[in-house]
Amino acid sequence: MKMYKGFDKDLKCRDFQYEIGKTYEEPTAELCEKGFHACEYPLDVFGYYAPSDMSRYCEVDLDDVSDKKNNEDSKRCGRKIAVKAEIGISSGGLGEKGGAYYVTEPDRIRIVSQGCKVRLESAAELTEGAIVDNLDPRINYVGNWIKMEDYCGNLNGSETLSNTAGDYAELRFTGTGITVYGPWDILYGMCNVYLDGELWKKDMSQYPPKVDFPGMSRGYEKRYRQILAEVHGLEEKEHTLRIEVTGTKEAKAQNTYTSIDYAVLEGSSYTGGFKMNIAVDFNYPRMVRGCVRRPDVNLIPGVRESFRIQMLLEEDK
């Protein structure tokens, strides 16, 4: 489990000496009592080792992790820890209320946050070739698939869809995982997803769940970039993904379309970079008619929900 850990200037934590590249084990793991501790979110380590104390920070792998979680932050405890690499995290003095936090990983990428929860996650999609858009020639469409332009939320302003039973889209890729994205719509039905010739997801529906306005009647709605299916931890070799239209639908759906937006590949060829998640209060899904919505998104300190912001290298600013 990828985590982040703070140390003093000598790379010690509670008088235990660590070394980068080494792995350590304990017989038991109990949160705040025994075992090794680390945080899921980089900035949470500041609560234990402040940047002003010349503290140091590392990315670690924490294994045999206890199910118990801290109520105050993202600290977890495990029996085994591997210290992978040192990362730079420092604090500055921007703004009148508290400091601004700068997170660097690697050195050319910087995050700035004033008071909100921020976390870094690996992002395979930042590697060239990791994103397979619906119009990518690597996807082989068989049957009556049509391209539809929709710039309201699709990745590159389009999706490819079919409602003919038996039509399929096939993608061959080399890697360890794949995540398929597409929209939800009241006009969309169900499909079957196959991986390496085996049925992986049966009757996967693209009909959107019920909206969350109490007492609201259902109108036209569409939600973009939803995860339709995902798998991780595959053997790194060539795999074949097939999405097949069934021509069936949920009872209240108005048609049987299957629609594909894009897929993201994982594997050693897609090392990517890092994406930044910032705590935020979500809007309701976009609604074309009826147009009822919450206020615009604002950053709210302490809220664990998040949205994604693409980071650029320092020289690309």
Describe the structure.
Helices cover 0% and strands 45% of the residues. The protein has no helices and 24 strands. It has strands spanning 2-7, 12-13, 16-17, 23-25, 36-39, 56-65, 75-91, 101-104, 110-113, 118-123, 131-133, 139-142, 146-149, 158-162, 168-175, 177-185, 190-195, 198-205, 222-231, 237-245, 258-260, 262-266, 273-279, 306-309. Strands 1, 4, 5, 6, 7, 8 and 9 form a 7-stranded antiparallel β-sheet that branches. It has a 5-stranded antiparallel β-sheet with strand order 12-15-20-17-18, with no helix packed on it. The radius of gyration is 23 Å and the shape is elongated. The relative contact order is 0.15. The model is unreliable at 90-117 and 279-317 (pLDDT under 50).
